[in-house]
Design a protein that fits this description.
about 40% helix; globular; mainly alpha; two-stranded antiparallel ribbon; about 70 residues
Length: about 70
Amino acid sequence: METEPLMTREQTAEFLTARGYPITKGTLEQFASRKIGPPVAKIWGRKPLYLPSAALAWAESRARNPGDVAA
């Protein structure tokens, strides 16, 4: 069974941006401090690590449809 590689916060930001969900490492840090960011899979030292599939699911859940935004 192959497991997903874990990503640092910077890698997670790059991963999500490449998939159409532009976000910076700094924004992820702010979201983490407010506990609204993607779920942390593990902690290595003081670094949170994320699963790609969980981070992508989190970004997709936060995306809005164009019709949801008031003009």
